[in-house]
Write a structure and sequence with these properties.
Blueprint: E1 4-9, H1 13-28, E2 32-34, E3 42-47, H2 52-68, E4 73-78, H3 79-83, H4 85-89, E5 96-98, H5 106-111, E6 124-126, E7 139-140, E8 147-151, E9 153-154, H6 165-169, E10 173-174, H7 177-189, E11 194-198, H8 218-225, E12 233-236, H9 246-253, E13 261-263, H10 271-277, H11 283-296, E14 301-308, H12 315-327, E15 332-337, H13 355-378, E16 384-392, E17 397-402, E18 407-411, E19 420-424
Parallel strand pairs: 1-2, 1-3, 3-4, 4-5, 5-6, 8-11, 11-12, 13-14, 14-15
Antiparallel strand pairs: 7-8, 9-10, 16-17, 16-19, 17-18
Helix pairs in contact: 7-8, 9-11, 12-13
Length: 425
């Protein structure tokens, strides 16, 4: 009998694109795909490990599966599996742990389930030194035709003091431009309307030659993508401010396919904290990037990532960040509460910020984000913008996003799903 397999994804859009590709490859190999809430022979959890909450959620999922399906096998892969394979192997109920190099050999490992546990009954671990990973595995999500997350880059060569991603994902490496275009053309034939470019450090796109010198860069990539027919929209999921050059901004402003929407990680609006984080810019450069975008595209939506409660962050430092974000013309914030991560330099910094203070700062910035998004959307009230509508929900309401990332809700009518319609906001 063919095994049935159910997937669950934790974390970023890149993880979702990889899970979708793994699922499709297993189906092609004869495995039966099941929903995660259904009974299955095997459950695969593709993990994140950016915060302690992500680790905790993985452990909770394992316990939930074992209560519901005690005979099922459980496989853990993803960033948590690469960073702490032995810790995961000791979790009761886990059968197999696959590190970064083995994730895309999932079918091979599933065929050996039941024969590959160690002599002590612990889960089998297949991992490697992250520095040994050289391969790039292209992937894209395909849950519906409206929007697809397309992975074009993986890994990171930066050394931010709070981040474990280089330890979990390895060094920066990319697909070829030809490979990206082939994936785009396949998605277009399947009816996809919008592509979201994903990667760990998208702006670092490019493959090195034998001497380590990069050839094609991110600007080269988006120029070629803009020529492809059959896709209506492309978004850039996230790009570092020091890699968001004016040429990229100017190209997006005049692009046929790229939407007026940037997500630019900030992490802190205080230069002392940015230096401690080992970010590759100061807030003056960030403000310059935002100003340039808004001068060229006043209608552009700009999102920012921010970390609160980084070690040594004082009330004054946080007020710097709050006032900076209040002043500049960003549209919304993704706010993260700092979480101590093993094997990072930040864990050695003292004094630490108390948890309750971190939570208060998180709430303050989330409230600011709500206000800023309200201000941004209000500017477009009673204007007409193109909206890509998605699937109707159960209560008869259909949702979609404008080109500049304003969420729209409307009463569902036949023919709206997966269509781009000029809509009065």
């Amino acid at each position: 009998m063919n095994k049935s397999v159910a997937f669950h994804t934790l974390g970023c859009k890149l993880n979702y694109s990889e899970t979708s590709t793994l699922s499709r490859s297993l189906e092609a190999d004869g495995f039966l795909k099941k929903d995660f809430e259904d009974d299955a022979d095997v459950y695969v959890i593709n993990t994140c490990s950016v915060t302690e909450n992500a680790d905790r959620e993985c452990r909770m999922l394992v316990r939930r599966i074992k209560r519901r399906a005690p005979e099922a096998a459980i496989v853990i892969t993803g960033c948590y599996a690469q960073l702490k394979p032995n810790e995961i192997a000791s979790i009761e109920g886990v059968d197999l742990v696959l590190g970064a190099a083995e994730k895309f050999n999932l079918a091979f490992h599933l065929r050996g389930l039941g024969t590959n546990r160690d002599p002590n009954g612990k889960a089998a671990v297949f991992s490697c030194d992250i520095d040994e990973i050289e391969d790039f595995h292209s992937s894209f999500s395909l849950s519906d035709r409206t929007r697809t997350f397309l992975k074009v880059q993986d890994g990171c060569d930066y050394s931010c003091t709070f981040c474990t991603i280089p330890l979990a994902r390895g060094h920066s490496r990319s697909d070829s431009i030809d490979g990206v275009i082939r994936n785009m053309e396949e998605l277009a034939q399947g009816g996809t309307r919008e592509i979201v470019l994903t990667g760990i450090n998208l702006g670092d796109f490019g493959n090195a030659d034998g001497n380590g010198k990069k050839g094609d860069n991110f600007l080269d990539l988006i120029r070629e993508m803009d020529k492809v027919n059959g896709i209506d929209r492309i978004r850039i999921s996230s790009i570092e401010p020091n890699l968001l050059h004016n040429q990229i901004i100017e190209f997006v402003a005049g692009s046929r396919l790229f939407m007026p929407h940037f997500h630019i990680p900030l992490q802190s609006g205080n230069n002392r904290i940015l230096n401690l984080m080992r970010r590759r810019y100061l807030r003056e450069l960030y403000e310059e990037r935002v100003s340039t975008i808004k001068q060229i595209m006043p209608h552009c939506c700009i999102g920012a990532d921010v970390i609160v409660g980084f070690p040594t962050e004082t009330d004054s430092d946080f007020r710097d960040t709050f006032d900076f974000l209040h002043r500049i013309d960003v549209s919304y914030l993704h706010v993260f509460t700092y979480s101590e991560r093993e094997n990072t330099q930040a864990i050695e910094l003292k004094p630490v910020v108390p948890i309750h203070v971190r939570n208060e700062r998180n709430k303050a910035l989330r409230n600011l984000s709500y206000q800023k998004m309200g201000y941004f959307t209000e500017q477009f009230r009673n204007t007409i913008r193109p909206v890509l509508f998605e699937h109707a929900s159960k209560n008869g309401i259909v949702e979609g996003y404008t080109d500049n990332y304003i969420k729209v809700q409307a009463a569902h009518k036949p023919g709206m799903t997966n269509q781009i319609l000029d809509w009065t906001i």
